[in-house]
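Researcher: Re-running this chain for the archive, since the previous output was lost when a drive failed. Same request as before.
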Amino acid sequence: MTEVEELPVEERARRPLLERVAVLANPVVLVVLILDAVLLAWLELLFLPLRVWDFWPDVPRAYNWPLPVTILIAAVTTPWLVLAAARCSSRMIVVALPFLAWLGAVVVFGVAGPGGDVLLTDDWRSLVLLSVGSLAGAAALGTRLTLPQPR
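Model: Regenerated structure tokens:
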């Protein structure tokens, strides 16, 4: 007996519908992941110049340090987007699309931001954001080779 013949009648009738929904859901999930990557890149760039004064205005000027919390967000979310895309497809270019969208959005929004503003300034935080996000995404792409392939 095959695997489908061993299932109850209700399961056999429902199984093709679930498979059709799963096939249609993968492209939708990939589009949402790409949009998430662009939105995250935009938010990470907007909040990159945060300083202590933004949260605590009474701090003395000597303690107004930068708070690059968006670098940590990029370090966590960029690999998560890549690994989530790896669950949807087995093709490497499709898996890399959220990472490439994040990288492209950081460059485009950073150089030609909203209203012509330059969000990627000549500061160490911009370099660290690009490096951490890129390295984390590239590491996730590398580990994708060791994950079980979706069908």
